[in-house]
Amino acid sequence: MGDDDRLSSRVEVCRSPDGSWVATGGSACSNVIRTSRYTVWNFLPLNLFEQFMHPANFFFLVIAVLQSIQPVSTTNGVPTMMLPLSIVLTVSGIRAATEDLQRHRSDWELAMRQYLCNAGGKFVHQHSADITVGQIIRLEADQEVPADVLLLHSHHARGHCFVETSSLDGESTLKVKVALPTTQSAGELVYDRLTIRYEEPNADIESFRGLIGIHGVAGAEGEVQHRLSMANLLLRGTVLKNTEHVIGVVVFTGDETKIRCNSFVTQQAQTIRRSSLALVANRMLIGLFLIQLLMCIAATVVCQLQARNVLVKHYYLKFSDSDIKLEGVRRFFTYVILMAQMVPISFVISTELVKTAMAFMVPLDDEMNACAIRTSSLIDELGQVGIVVSDKTGTLTENRMQLRQMFVGPDLAMYGSGDTEISRRLASSATLNQRGPRTSQRWTDMLSEKMDNVRRWTKNTDGESNVFSTTSPHVYDGRQAVETALLQGNVALQRILLHFAVSNTISPVVDETSGSVLYQSSSPDELELCEFARGVGYELRGVQGGLTTVAVHGTSTVALKRLTTLEFNSKRKRATLIFDLNDGSQEPIAIMCKGADNVIIPLLDPATVCPTSLPARLRTMAERGMRTLVFAEGRRSRDWWRQRSSEWERLAHLPEEGAELGHSRGSCSDECRICSGAAHIERDAGLTFLGCSGLEDALQFLVPETICALTRAGIKLVMLTGDKPETALSIAVASNFAHTTESVVHIEDSESSTIQQCIEKGEDSMRKREADPQMEQFSMMIEGTTLAKLLTMDNATINRLLQVHAHPSCLSLICARATPAIKASVVLHLRRYHRRKIGAVLAIGDGANDEGMIRRADIGVGIAGLEGSTASRAADVSIASFRQLHTLMFVHGVWSYDRVAKLSHFIFYKSALVPIGMFAFGLVSAFSGQQLYPDVLITVQNVFFTALPVLAVGIFDRLFEREELLNYSNLIYRAVGRQALFNARSFTTWMLSSVFDGLVAFSFVFVQLCNEPKSDLTSASVGAFTALFIQVTIRVMEITSSVTVVHALAIGASLVVYLVAILLLDIIRISGIFGDAGELWSIRSHNGLETSLVIIMGVAVPLLARLMRHAVVYLWGMNPVDLIREHVQEAERRRRKEKSALEVVEMNTGAI
């Protein structure tokens, strides 16, 4: 009772006279889960706040305010900037509202699910959102648990039920939960009051501590108390399976449930994630702000210096001699308004529109079926991924174990060839891996070949195609040999098959429709072995009242009485079941033990013979990626068990505290009496070796090839799984996360080595590969407890590990036994250390246990599959399978990043053209504040005149064609990664080009004004503005990589819009609506030889300058993208030529 003081939560549930149950105490936390960002009430203020956090939006708000101040305004006090700013804010707000509305709908669907809750003495339907702590709830088969529920009663007589925990730990196999003995035996709610004390809400999904007092139990006086553990708790998100119904009491709701405590939802909801390109663009915007500020200060200083000598003399400038200093301040703000166009107001709206359009187009791809882009603002980040963090179960694998090989008896008779994914991968020269891949194998050719194979596999005997599946048809090839040996009476094989059938936690369920027996288990290994035993004649028929029934070859039945189970945990690494065979022998007690070889072999009776070649056989199976199990069995008399049973029953019911704390999950101390008692029974059981098995968890279709393509593209890999290290390592090798088990450096904290020493081993491997580049890459592996300790250490130690991981010699980092909280912490550290050095962090998973890491990553990808939709709802991108990540990143990611980079460069370029000319004009006009270009043209040029062509490039342009991206992803993705297309250097190049082009346009205006005395400023400036417009249009054509009809139509429409706008402004001007009537701009500004030369030279000079620059760059050295384009085009020409030659040879051969 020493730890009971920490059980601070308390709820009391009492039966009222009308039969209903009333709860008092407990948390008032709502059971509504909110993954959306906004509500109806906070959308407008919160969205506006977020939008004005963007430097450009805030800047233009300031400009609009300045335009409203008459003394400094250049627009007569009219805030003309509010029109384009309002358009930007409205479009961005609509996009944000649309995306958040989808999340609201998902949350609403979850909240509206119906559950049976006790009210008025009976169970009535109630929405999930209305469930509260202390409420009695009845769950039906296949229902998802809506909150954390304490199990009181189960339909099964023994009080157990089965739940699928795939959304928590990534395993689709079933876990067993048990009701409290008193509440189970008493019947459904046959008591008066429950008093429950338990721990505060926490993120530990493997531990639950509490105490319950039950009052009014028939035959019991006073209060009956029971300690509570995880075995009694049904967690939110799990699914009830193979159980008709259960009854429980709610103890945690909503964000206080254990899975929600793991997801970091509250903290992450306050974090606004932006793509790497957006962050760089923000820094460039700040740089432009500073440059603009310096230009305004320079203009003010020059204006002050020339005030008395020049400006005061010209009355129309309204420059007062009485207060020159005050007028200087006014001129500063005037130039802030005049130079405002240097910061592009169309940047935000253009990028938002382009990203939204691209997000809409991705699901239209035939290979991206069931894909959904939930956060369109991050779509360009898919082209900048430097690290992929992946879950294992359900993400890389199919959650299905397959038996591949067995060795039985002292002579190790082999059944099955042991053909696995790894053995096939190593043997196949066509497999894409880094150790000698067949470089001529193109992704599209390989995909077509494998899809053809899949279609052949799914053909039935009639030649008709079955339902399409990408699952490999590979089956256990040792079955026929097993059946033959059974016919020959192989006793050793019979014993191990009986072991397969009964030594498990499987509960057979009879299908009422077909009468067949269905198996569900908490262990995929047990399920596969039991299914195999049934296939060869040893069928587990039922487990009832402790009696296990097995039908042998359909002709006889064996009934075994299960006496007890010595449970498996990660410390023991084995499970032992003890049966009474009732076979009439002197030793009817069978002790069946199975587990890891390093724990089973030492337990074998020294008097028995253990095959000397067993370690080599086990090592070979492990190298082929199989999960190995060793089976042993002992026989003892009933007296032997009677002498030990009472002591074991006492030990088995010890509370998990003190030395036994954490026994169920294997974290108990070496003095744990439960573990010691179980080991004593096993050592005294006289165990003899029966055999060993090798099982493989099948990988999803094209997972190894996809992983290999990622590594060849220079992307670092991290596997975060809740599974045990052995399984994680075998899957890592099979999926190309690691080359071999020997190439893995283990990071552990033990008596023999510390974490720092293990990191030094990784650094040594790093230095060895630097000295010998031919040496294969190594991987690092770290277990959950060690990783948890590492995360509490100083940043220097964590950064050492991450530095090793970032080195090219390190292929991947594999983390086993990682809880959801650890997964999220690892992703956070990866982002902080690697984002600027390597690239963005992409996290991909499929279960609720992956939600935290998905939200913490730069971009989260969720797979909607067997483990539910929690991960896909929380993710930025939802896909159907892991292999779609290849197309998502290498095709749509590259396209999106290139389009947004071009769009950003171009918008900054064209926005600076006008302010540069204005500043140059100020140099010759004493910075009087006179505008060079008409204000109305300046206001609308970014939003209307050049919007269509650049949007066409941003939505439809293709840097490379789809097939080129798929087949040469290793070259192209490296070339565009790490901000290669948009960075400080490229930004500076574009801005210098803008400065040059703007000065050229101004110089010709100035020349015209000087040489033609009758010319007025408006006419000359409109002609120069036309030259700028044509120049910008040509620049759009220059940056276009793929010309389509859409591009041509957009350019034509832009020209028409400009001409129509000029004509409308002419009509307005001559009508005198806003002042005196004047001549037509379209005639005065674009007529005459001088004006024509201004337009022609204003376009030709910048164009010739760029052509000369491109020629110099080509001779000096092409940029990587252009080099790769030439390489790809040459490779494709060579391939087509070889294909044509091969077709000619085949035709000639056929003719002969």
UniProtKB/TrEMBL annotation:
Q: Which UniProt keywords apply?
A: ATP-binding, Magnesium, Membrane, Metal-binding, Nucleotide-binding, Translocase, Transmembrane, Transmembrane helix
- Domain (P-type ATPase A) ranges: 118-257
Q: Which PROSITE patterns match?
A: ATPASE_E1_E2, PROKAR_LIPOPROTEIN
Task: Name all P-type ATPase C-terminal domain ranges.
Answer: 873-1110
Q: Where is the active site?
A: D391
Q: What class of enzyme is it?
A: translocase
Its membrane topology is listed as: Multi-pass membrane protein
Known EC number:
7.6.2.1
Q: Which GO terms describe its biological process?
A: phospholipid translocation
Q: Which GO terms describe its cellular component?
A: plasma membrane
Provide the binding site for Mg(2+). Answer: D391, T393, D846, D850
Record has ATP-binding as a keyword: yes
Q: Which cofactors does this protein require?
A: Mg(2+)
Q: Mind telling me which residue stretches traverse the membrane in this protein? A: 284-307, 332-354, 906-924, 936-956, 987-1007, 1019-1037, 1049-1071
Keyword Cytoplasm assigned to the entry: answer is no
Q: What is its main location?
A: membrane
Q: MF terms per GO, please?
A: ATP binding; ATP hydrolysis activity; ATPase-coupled intramembrane lipid transporter activity; magnesium ion binding
Looking at the Swiss-Prot or TrEMBL record, what is one Pfam family this protein matches? PhoLip_ATPase_C
Instruction: Show the catalytic activity.
Output: ATP + H2O + phospholipidSide 1 = ADP + phosphate + phospholipidSide 2
Which stretches make up the P-type ATPase N-terminal domain? 29-80
Q: Where in the cell is it found?
A: Endomembrane system; Membrane
For the ligand (ATP), the binding residues are D391, K392, T393, E526, F568, K594, R627, T721, G722, D723, R817, K823, N849, D850
Family to which this protein belongs = Belongs to the cation transport ATPase (P-type) (TC 3.A.3) family. Type IV subfamily.
Q: What is this protein called?
A: Phospholipid-transporting ATPase
